[in-house]
Amino acid sequence: MTPKHLARLFSLLSLALALVGCITAGDKVDRDKVSQIKKGVTTRAEVEALLGPPTHVAIVGNGTRLMIYEYHETKVKGQNFIPYAGAFIGGTDNRRQNLQIILNENNVVTDYELTDRLSETTGGAFSRQEKRK
Question: What would you report as the CA-atom Rg of the chain, rounded to the nearest whole angstrom?
């Protein structure tokens, strides 16, 4: 291989590693926007204007609906890419957000709850452990 080909290969491998370093699903839930939701006042249309469409909507009963917003993010730690050792010392930093909003039969918010959990997995592929931050 020529130096030019090696440089291209190195660039492509670097790009691939950078792309694999973080995985997300859903949209982040903004706490400031959630704090604008008022029980007994805010409507479904106002929630969707504020936060966008929910990840899921479920009919609970008697016309009551449950709107769910979810966000998951996993960032791979750099130690994972150390040859051989990465399988034992690597890990990830994780964030999981879940917002549940209950609407009455008139599509008005009656209750909501936001959980925002940070955790870390350590130990690589062979002795994986998860702990909250």
Answer: 21
